[in-house]
Amino acid sequence: MKQKKSVEDYLKTIYILSREKDVHGADIARTIGVSRPTVCVSLKALEEEGYILMDDAREVHLTEKGMRIAEEPMNGTIRSASF
Asked: pLDDT tens digits, residue range 37-47?
């Protein structure tokens, strides 16, 4: 059984990728090892929760709320929500 990725996993991945280039769902899927449809569903949920914004070119951008979580040091805790 595949382990589900947490909100923090997605946000930290987006943060790291965005430091090098524009981020799309395919980039996230490739980096964290899940399917593109899985990422699409997760990104929709993250957008609804206010963690990310997606522009007309389908580029993924962290909001201030998402950035705060993405920049937190890894401390071994897992956020309660997962995808």
From this structure: 999 999 999 99
Residue matched to tokens 């979580």: 69
Length of the chain in residues, anyone? 83
Q: What is the rounded distance in angstroms from the CA atom of residue 18 to the CA atom of residue 43?
A: 15
The CATH number of the domain covering residues in 7-70: 1.10.10.10
Which tokens is 75 given? 């401390």
- Report DSSP state, residue 9: H
